TrEMBL record:
Keywords: DNA integration, DNA recombination, DNA-binding. One of its GO terms (biological process) is DNA integration. This is Integrase. Residues 10-96 form the Core-binding (CB) domain. Residues 120-337 form the Tyr recombinase domain. One of its GO terms (molecular function) is DNA binding. InterPro entries: CB, DNA_brk_join_enz, Integrase-like_cat_sf, Integrase_catalytic, Integrase_recombinase_N, Integrase_SAM-like_N, Tyrosine_recombinase_XerCD.
Length: 343
């Protein structure tokens, strides 16, 4: 190919380090670590399987072989393969810019399509994405509706309806906790009724955001029952639709990274349209329930006992394991190893 003559030789480890150095000022440490982990598999494949020491020689067919190899090598689900290949695509796009690979090679990076069942079962807000989104919100939208809502959903794992039903009086700043109450007569029920009522402990930095929201940013309005909602809009208590669409919008990758992992033109993408429900059309945006599922997985990954997570999130342990815990078998066995090594 004529374009090949313009390429500059570079080995895979060097290219990956250049990519990570470029991303370091833009993303969180957790995201950077996740990208390093995923791209280390590509380096391993280049060196041990294909004996590629110059990325100039990478082709679309070889990237196809890599996807098949990675699925087999890691015994990965479609969702995990998609996550890994999306990172590879962004990396290859960077390599195109530095003349390390042939032009438009990123278009050859194919991620598996997910069925509706796979999306429903395994889509979560990852801890890496949550950290990156919250870092951006803290920097540019501190104690705003967006920032306060997402930090509360992520840190507590509460359901959309529980967050919507909170009043200012339910927030006990001195004791750093929230009280969830079942109030169906005022249109703010909890999913599990009275059994869903509970106290939730908060981190000090979460309380700082909540207090600043209440004192400086919250609209001072009441709802139709004369209550003082924690989350308000000009119309009163925030609706379920407002909360849901806010989460979809905030979790679009282009919103917090400035890049699209799906190769779309951001300006013309249908998910960027201002009309209602447009943000949910982004393949990577997630719902409030996906934030809850990701939060639960995050707590479990940090070795928080299942009983503690079950009580805090108001979900039975069997349901938690079956429908919410998205840790891979590899993650689980390594966590168990940590306990066994101390015996």
């Amino acid at each position: 190919m004529p374009e090949h003559h313009t390429l500059e030789p570079i080995d895979p480890p060097t290219a990956v380090e250049m990519y990570l150095q470029e991303r370091e000022p833009e993303v969180s440490e957790a995201t950077l670590k996740a990208h390093r982990y995923r791209l280390n598999h590509l380096i391993r494949w280049c060196e041990a399987v294909e004996e590629i020491d110059n990325l100039n020689n990478l082709t679309g067919r070889k990237l196809h072989h890599y996807r098949l190899w990675r699925r087999e090598d890691g015994d990965l689900s479609n969702v995990t393969v998609k996550t890994q290949m999306d990172t590879v695509r962004v990396f290859i796009r960077f390599c195109e810019r530095i003349d390390a690979v042939r032009p438009n090679l990123s278009e050859s990076v194919v991620s598996p399509s997910l069925s509706d069942g796979e999306n429903q079962r395994e889509t979560i807000l990852t801890s890496e994405a949550a950290t990156e989104i919250l870092n951006r919100l803290e920097r540019f939208e501190y104690a705003s509706f967006n920032h306060t809502l997402l930090i509360l959903l992520w840190r507590t794992g509460m359901r959309l309806g529980a967050a919507r039903g909170l009043d200012i009086q339910d927030y006990d700043a001195p004791r750093m906790r929230l009280k969830l109450q079942h109030r169906p007569e005022h249109d703010t029920p909890l999913k599990n009724g009275r059994d869903g009522e509970r106290l939730i402990a908060l981190r000090p930095d979460t309380c700082e955001v909540l207090s600043d929201w209440v004192e400086h940013r919250r609209r001072d309005v009441t709802d139709e029952y004369g209550r003082d909602p924690l989350f308000t809009t000009a119309q009163g208590r925030a609706s379920r639709t407002t909360i849901r669409e806010t989460v979809y919008r905030l979790t679009r990758p282009c919103e917090y990274t400035g890049e699209c992992p799906h190769g779309r033109e951001i300006e013309s993408c249908e998910a960027m349209n201002t009309r209602r429900k447009a943000a949910s059309k982004c393949p990577s945006s997630v719902s409030p329930h996906d934030v809850r599922r990701g939060s639960i997985t995050h707590f479990l990954s940090r070795d928080v006992p299942e009983k503690v997570v079950s009580d805090r999130m108001n979900v039975g342990q069997q349901v938690l394991s079956k429908h919410y815990d998205q840790r891979t078998e590899e993650q689980k066995v390594e966590q168990r190893r940590g306990y066994l090594n101390n015996i």
